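[worker-b] picked up task from shared queue
[worker-b] task type: protein-ligand structure
[worker-b] ligand name resolved to zinc ion; SMILES cross-checked against name lookup, match
[worker-b] sequence length check passed
[worker-b] input payload:
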Amino acid sequence: MPELPEVEVVRRALEGEIKGLTITDIKIKYPNIILDDIEEFRCNVLSKKIISMDRLGKFLIFNLNEGNLVSHLRMEGKYFYVKKDSMDNKHIHVIFYFDNGYMLCYQDVRKFGRICYKSNCDLYTTEPLSNVGIDLTKNKDYDLDLLYKKITSRKTPIKTTLLDQSIIAGLGNIYVDEVLFLSKLNPHMDSNKITKKDLKNILSHSLDCFLKSIECGGTTIRSYTSSLGVIGHNQDNLLVHTKEACPVCGSKIIKDKTNGRGTYYCPKCQKL
Ligand SMILES: [Zn+2]
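[worker-b] inference finished, payload out:
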């Protein structure tokens, strides 16, 4: 699943490709991808120009000359910017055609991704973006005490709490494992046991992991690619996720599950 760095890599690639283009037609092959009424969506998006690409947490935002497209890739969503009619398969569900003879295909093998249109005044005040927590790459001015209260009021394991996008946005399964390893915290530790110092460690390691990974073009595990032919290399930097031995103490890395997701940690370095 693409996490914040991968979505940022996609954002940058897309901005380079589609900024300034006008949407001349839309083909919707699988309507469930679009959260809005299909006809309304078409009306709102047709003839609009793409001014810039933005992102909040794992959401991509296409800023149009009037309104915005909001897109979440979920598990397997991908965009391909190619020449008109040069690509088609059963996993391509939405196609945006542009005024320069190119098209943007949204491909999603699992069909979990979603796209919707939002006016400027609704963009951050309505779902889905109103539910997005702190994006550390964008907001340096958050209330640490409030965040600490939010996290320690949970009785769930810290990994589960960190995966909740309404608290800290952008952390997914891979980066949570890495951040908890760097913060020396066991993923099964109760959220209400973390100290303020632990939280500060989590926040600074999260931002570090995000920025490093974005620099490497994201992490490529399984089928994630940012756009056709773009493959990230951050998997070479992972310390604990998918690893056999702890890079610090040499202990065997434990792999178990949190909320059904593969979880990796060192039993010696990460306190419970
Ligand atoms: Zn260790």
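[worker-b] attaching auto-annotations
[worker-b] Residues 222-226 have pLDDT under 50 and may be disordered.
[worker-b] releasing lock
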